[in-house]
Write a structure and sequence with these properties.
This protein is of the alpha/beta class. 36% of the residues lie in helices and 23% in strands.
């Protein structure tokens, strides 16, 4: 068993990633292919076959000797993204991305009916999709679609606790959607879905005994991959967008945050979601500052704080405002501001947004001891140090590809019979720790108050602009 390999796959908003891990969590191969959505008039769509094509190319890039050692495939994906498949297993239209704004006119009503913001957002899209859909269709996430292509089974691969799926039968029934949309059979993470179909295995040059193990949504896989499985740890999963998730002993609730049961009893999951974080940096580097990127700046190259306050809400914002009308602001510009200043101010603005969520958790009574970060931002020392200085907390880095490692851990659990909690405890290590600079933290605290006030003073103007 020691020579066996796990194939972990993550379908992100921007990239499809495929990584091979050995049973000790060591990475032996990595493939990444850009696979972006088509965006027009607030609609974010993609042909799901693009994900499959990227996956196939990734598998064909694997060395033949490594390929013979692959024992299991486990998948994760961004969301909630809607992939529709009819009863004959045929795709129905294009996938609808989580940034898509159709149905937003239903959000206020759905939230007034007690739905949390994330469930309301997915339900609002379904209300609109129903109008154009003929017949019935299964609701899949991108990773479920990949599982279907591999095994031929239509499943809902996620944890059974509330908060890990964007749709629920009781919600569909309540809003007259159950005659149009079907939720597939649930298969919980680390359980076997089935073997790769023979014809698919031949096309991919895989052995016929490769199994497909149920993964989890990317944020949940990242919790496993960072070992955020005990109280007091916040997982900051930072990519195109950003999810901040706390494992809490207490059932704390704060306005704009989502509290649901953790997938490990008796804990609770408290989450906040940012719409554009890495995307805001990309926008700033490519369209405004015309600088290469944040990676090209060193910790000592530019003075911090910059004194320029950036609101990173370039496509509305989720937590804690859940307001599609919010937009970005650059406040405090002067003649001495240059491209480097703007890039760093964008990172500071994202860190302020993270702090807003973390402070909301604390004010609600949650205990937070440390932050573990993962995703593309986690590989950038400057960004990690900015977050530590803004938060006034240690920021720990385990590895930037935690959702992929999380998938590997779930598959290893399946193969070895260990619980995934035991596997995570064994394999996840803190590789780097960023400690806050006390003087910079004091300075950032003053700017953070201005950041919050900028929101409050401009809320009515955002709404007027949006209308």
């Amino acid at each position: 068993m020691s020579s066996e390999l796990i194939m972990a796959v993550d379908i992100g908003t921007t990239n499809v990633k495929l990584t091979l891990f050995d049973l000790e969590g060591r990475k032996v191969f990595h493939f990444e292919r850009k696979c972006t959505e088509d965006v027009s008039d607030g609609r974010h769509e993609i042909d799901p076959e693009k994900w499959w094509t990227a996956f196939v190319r990734g598998v064909h890039s694997v060395d033949e000797k490594l390929k013979t050692r692959i024992r299991a495939i486990c998948t994760s994906s961004q969301g909630p993204t809607i992939v529709l498949v009819n009863e004959r297993g045929q795709l129905v239209g294009r996938a609808i991305g989580w940034l898509d704004d159709r149905g937003k006119q239903h959000m206020a009503f759905l939230k007034s009916q007690g739905l949390d913001e994330q469930t309301a957002s997915a339900t609002a899209k379904l209300i609109e999709l129903k109008k154009a859909l003929e017949g019935k269709a299964y609701l899949l996430q991108p990773s479920d679609f990949l599982i279907f292509k591999l095994t031929g089974r239509i499943v809902n691969a996620t944890f059974r606790q509330y908060g890990y799926s964007p749709w629920y039968s009781e919600v569909l029934e309540r809003f007259d959607l159950s005659q149009t949309f079907m939720i597939p059979e649930l298969v919980e993470p680390s359980n076997v879905v089935g073997r790769v179909q023979r014809d698919v295995a031949r096309r991919l040059d895989l052995t016929t005994d490769v199994i497909v193990v149920a993964g989890a949504p990317d944020f949940a896989a990242a919790l496993v991959g960072t070992n955020t499985l005990k109280p007091g740890i916040v997982c900051d999963r930072a990519g195109t967008s950003e999810g901040i998730t706390l494992c809490s002993e207490l059932e704390v609730r704060a306005s704009g945050l989502i509290t649901t049961p953790f997938f490990i009893e008796p804990f609770w999951k408290v989450s906040g979601l940012l719409t554009t974080s890495g995307k805001a940096i990309e926008w700033m580097t490519n369209r405004v500052a015309r600088f290469r990127n944040l990676r090209d700046l060193s910790l000592s190259e530019i003075g911090r704080p910059t004194g320029v306050i950036f609101l990173p809400h370039l496509a509305g914002e989720r937590s804690p405002y859940w307001n599609p009308n919010l937009r970005g602001i650059l406040f405090g510009l002067g003649l001495d501001v240059n491209a480097k200043t703007l890039i760093v101010s964008a990172a500071e603005g994202v860190a302020f947004a993270v702090k807003h969520i973390v402070e909301s958790m604390r004010q609600a009574g949650a205990k937070i001891e440390t932050v573990r970060t993962t995703g593309g931002q986690a590989s950038n020392d400057l960004w990690n140090q900015i977050k530590a200085d803004v938060l006034g907390m240690n920021v720990e880095v385990t590895r930037p590809d935690a959702e992929l490692l999380g998938c590997a851990i779930l598959a290893i659990s399946c193969l070895t019979g260990e619980s995934f909690v035991e596997v995570a405890e064994r394999l996840v290590k803190v590789k780097k720790r960023f400690k806050p600079d006390p003087e910079k933290h004091v300075a950032y605290e003053k700017l953070y108050k201005i950041y919050l006030e900028l929101h409050e003073r401009n809320l009515d103007l955002f709404d007027r602009l949006g209308s």
